[in-house]
């Protein structure tokens, strides 16, 4: 069996596999339809595999064609990333790192990390995208981001997780609320108040931990609103729509008419962790992880 294939053959195949139409694929590739047909037939001959079933009005992928399309799509994305890194090296930028993060990581951890990393890698480009925990895991598994900052206790096989910040929870109240740091005893004092919480879809495990705080306090909370943004929580608290519980780090970065009471006497804590894919070959990733560990 002789594989006399070039990168262009793979791109030709993917164009036909996606369009399922030789003329449309040829137009997309800016080549002639007969020329494209010859290239695909040559590819099938070299591989000794039938990739398409050809009919008068339509083209259908064979099972082998479906498999090859899925695998090539995944691996050519990795190849594009390699070429992108090479181009950045040529331009003196030395590479690019894509971050995913939950909002609280941007209050202190990520800014400190970027400052520290820039001291030794002044020309690195960063992509920063706020997303929920599950979205980060999906993006890490498909290597659409290089590193994630999550509030999870465990991650799927193939990913590494390293805790970087363990912190207390804080109760959030309007500044003029009759309960304050001087007279607060426990959450049971507020069992008849409505609460505004992060949406469970943003992080089911985090939501479960917060609900356990209420269970240990002897009541089920009245939940008036769910949201995915801390700013929305604070605006609702500020306007007396309810109270909330958030990680301590979310006290920073917001200037709103609310007060925070740190919950030091409960067993629950929340941990911010960095997560990355063990198969990610971005040459900057190990250096970034080492920088994060050094910062701890």
From TrEMBL:
Source lineage: Bacteria, Pseudomonadati, Bacteroidota, Flavobacteriia, Flavobacteriales
Similarity comment: family membership: Belongs to the LysR transcriptional regulatory family.
Superkingdom per UniProt: Bacteria
InterPro entries named among the record's database cross-references: LysR_HTH_N, LysR_subst-bd, WH-like_DNA-bd_sf, WH_DNA-bd_sf
Organism: Tenacibaculum tangerinum
Protein name, UniProt field: LysR family transcriptional regulator
The HTH lysR-type domain, residue ranges: 5-62
Keywords: DNA-binding, Transcription, Transcription regulation
Gene3D superfamilies: Periplasmic binding protein-like II (3.40.190.10), Winged helix-like DNA-binding domain superfamily/Winged helix DNA-binding domain (1.10.10.10)
């Amino acid at each position: 069996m002789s594989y006399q294939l070039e990168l262009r053959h793979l791109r030709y195949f993917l164009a036909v596999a996606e369009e399922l139409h030789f003329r449309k694929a040829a137009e997309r590739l800016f080549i002639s339809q007969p020329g494209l047909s010859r290239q695909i037939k040559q590819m099938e001959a070299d591989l000794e595999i039938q990739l398409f079933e050809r009919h008068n009005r339509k083209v259908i992928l064979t099972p082998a064609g479906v498999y090859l399309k899925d695998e090539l799509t995944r691996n050519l994305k990795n190849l594009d990333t390699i070429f992108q890194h090479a181009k950045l090296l040529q331009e003196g930028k030395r590479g690019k790192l894509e971050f995913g993060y939950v909002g609280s990581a941007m209050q202190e951890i990520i800014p400190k990390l970027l400052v520290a990393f820039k001291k030794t890698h002044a020309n690195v480009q960063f992509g920063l995208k706020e997303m929920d925990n599950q979205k980060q895991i999906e993006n890490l598994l498909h290597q659409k981001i290089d590193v994630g900052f999550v509030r999870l206790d465990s991650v799927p096989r193939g990913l590494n997780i390293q805790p970087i910040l363990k912190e207390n929870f804080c109760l959030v109240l309007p500044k003029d609320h009759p309960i304050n740091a001087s007279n607060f005893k426990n959450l049971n004092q507020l069992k008849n108040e409505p609460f505004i919480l992060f949406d469970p879809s943003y992080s089911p495990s985090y939501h479960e931990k917060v609900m356990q705080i209420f269970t240990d306090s002897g009541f089920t909370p009245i939940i008036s609103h769910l949201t995915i943004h801390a700013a929305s929580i604070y605006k609702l608290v500020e306007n007396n729509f309810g109270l909330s519980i958030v990680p301590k780090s979310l006290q920073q970065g917001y200037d709103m008419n609310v007060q925070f009471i740190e919950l030091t006497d409960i067993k629950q804590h929340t941990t911010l962790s960095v997560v990355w894919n063990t198969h990610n070959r971005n040459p900057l990733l190990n250096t970034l992880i080492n920088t994060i560990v050094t910062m701890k």
